[in-house]
Design brief:
Blueprint lengths: L22 H15 L7 E2 L2 H8 L3 H13 L3 E4 L3 E4 L28 H7 L25 H14 L14 H15 L8 E4 L2 H12 L5 E6 L3 H9 L3 E8 L2 E2 L1 H7 L5 E4 L13 H14 L2 E5 L24 E6 L11 E4 L5 H11 L5 H12 L2 H27 L5 E2 L7 E5 L6 H10 L5 E2 L12 E5 L5 H20 L2
Helix pairs in contact: 1-3, 2-3, 5-12, 6-12, 7-8, 7-11, 13-15
Length: about 500
């Protein structure tokens, strides 16, 4: 093919030095656009990189990087001694296409989601980072965590960890961390387990997902407390299990209702220490009956002990797992509430016979958790820092709960009934019968107060309206101010009804 006239240079205004996009990328996008739109034809020679650089007022390296990208992707080709040309082998269907000037011009058809994708879309999720405000639940007091100490421990680990530990490791977790967790659970929760039974997971949600995938087949029935944590319901449903909502009473999950609804359930998911979200503790009699039924039915029990560290009255209760003598209980814990959510470390304690299958499940999910964070957490536990932090926070959280109860009773008694709890990091504010708790949540959000609608946690209709009010992450002054703001929300809603 005969050499064609050099391409007309782009106008300097096509590159914007103030843009977040690098100049080489801007030049690459502009030339790619001209090639695909037909402005630059197959076989047409581009001006030399030096000429481009002078015309556009950029460095020659900038131009060469853009050329290299075009060359690597097949838009241009280099001919020795002749220069750089638009390739003459572009597929016909790529030529003269309409190329959007900017991303917002791109239109796509809605994706056709699988059933699992549709189920995931049905669950609310905060996909962007934000700063929690009162009374968002599930938030520890990050400003009171000893991050300076944490930083020193991390520096020590970086200096002393063997480089061998930075390759692929044991999918069940860093051995010293599993040892520290086993020791901690023995002393604090009465659980006797070996480190081999501990599987470190990337937070409680991954533990829930692994349990649902390993222990349930498509269509298997799984009892779930009604109401229940949405993450548990999502894990069960997306794994193809049939969720059986079983109501709770003052003693915990109602076994008689569960046995009537699904006597051959494969899995039971419970929060016996502090029922999520209502807050009652499962009685000893109910625990023993649940264990006896699980043994008889051949069912597995998942005990989610999500914030067991924070009990404000009496001695901590032994875990359900501590009463398990037949190996039917899997215990799930997390460091997100006691330390900080971004750590993304939790743990499962599984029966001996399930260790290998859970190791394989972890291997095929995301292989392992980062070793450095595991090593620091292991040291944090082994040296007693975790226990001291929990003891300190227990006193602070108890005071914050008291401040919330007092403020609500003083300023919101016309609309909200609230009772203190012996454990947990949130309380339920009960609303007048007939009030729409979801509408209240929306109105409060607009005013800068974050509540959780209790109705959201029911598969069936919520018997009583209420809101979840987290208090752990917020100072007593912030709690009182948020209650006053919430009073204004109630008053505004009353005027419109």
């Amino acid at each position: 093919m005969a050499e064609t006239k050099a391409a007309v240079l782009l106008a300097p205004t096509r590159l914007n030095p103030a843009s977040d996009q690098p100049l080489y990328r801007q030049l690459y996008e502009a030339l790619r656009h001209d090639i695909l739109s037909g402005h630059l034809l197959p076989g047409q020679r581009l001006a030399a990189s030096r000429v481009f650089a002078e015309e556009l007022g950029v460095s020659r390296n900038t131009v060469m990087v853009a050329f290299d990208l075009l060359l690597a992707e097949g838009y241009v080709e280099s001919r020795v001694g002749a220069g750089t040309f638009v390739t003459d082998t572009l597929p016909e269907h790529l030529l003269h296409v309409t190329v959007p000037e900017k991303e917002s011009d791109v239109t796509t058809s809605p994706p056709e989601l699988t059933k699992r994708g549709q189920q995931l879309m049905a669950f609310p999720a905060r996909l962007q980072p934000d700063f929690p405000q009162p009374f968002r639940t599930g938030q520890p007091a990050l400003d009171l965590f000893p991050f300076e100490l944490w930083g020193r421990l991390m520096q020590q680990q970086i200096r002393h960890l063997s480089t061998a530990l930075f390759t692929y490791g044991d999918p069940t977790g860093y051995a010293p961390l599993r040892e520290a967790i086993a020791e901690y659970l023995h002393t604090s929760r009465g659980i006797r387990c070996t480190p081999d039974q501990v599987v470190v997971v990337g937070g409680a949600q991954q533990g829930l997902n692994l349990v649902a995938q390993v222990l349930g087949d498509q269509g298997d029935a799984a009892w779930l407390e009604e109401p229940a944590y949405l993450g548990t319901r999502a894990a069960l449903q997306t794994a193809g299990l049939q969720v059986i909502p079983v109501p709770v009473d003052s003693e915990g999950i109602d076994l008689e209702v569960g046995k009537r609804l699904a006597p051959q359930a494969r899995l039971v998911c419970v929060t016996p220490s502090f029922q999520y979200p209502l807050g009652m503790t499962m009685s000893l009699a109910r625990r023993l009956n649940l264990l006896a039924w699980a043994e008889e039915a051949g069912a597995w029990i998942l005990e989610d002990d999500y914030d067991n560290e924070y009990r404000y009255a009496g001695r901590p209760l032994a875990a359900l797992k501590a009463l398990d003598t037949t190996g039917r209980v899997l215990y799930l814990g997390t460091f997100s509430k006691a330390m900080f959510p971004a750590l993304r470390l939790g743990y499962l304690v599984v029966p001996d016979g399930l260790v290998e299958v859970f190791a394989r499940a972890r291997y095929h999910s995301d292989r392992q958790s980062p070793v450095l964070e595991q090593a620091v957490t292991a040291q944090f536990l082994a040296e007693g820092h975790f226990a001291r932090h929990v003891r300190r926070m227990r006193v602070i959280y108890a005071a914050r709960q008291c401040a919330l109860v007092q403020a609500v009773r003083e300023h919101l008694s016309e609309w909200v009934e609230i009772q203190p709890a012996e454990t947990g990091l949130h309380l339920i504010g009960w609303l007048p019968k007939g009030m729409d708790d979801a509408a209240l949540v929306d109105a409060a959000e607009a005013a800068g107060v974050q509540l959780g609608a209790l109705s959201l946690y029911y598969l069936s209709n919520s018997p009583s309206p209420g809101v979840m009010m987290g208090y752990a992450a917020y100072t007593e002054d912030a709690i009182r101010q948020a209650v006053l703001t919430l009073r204004g929300v109630f008053q505004a809603m009353a005027k419109t009804t």
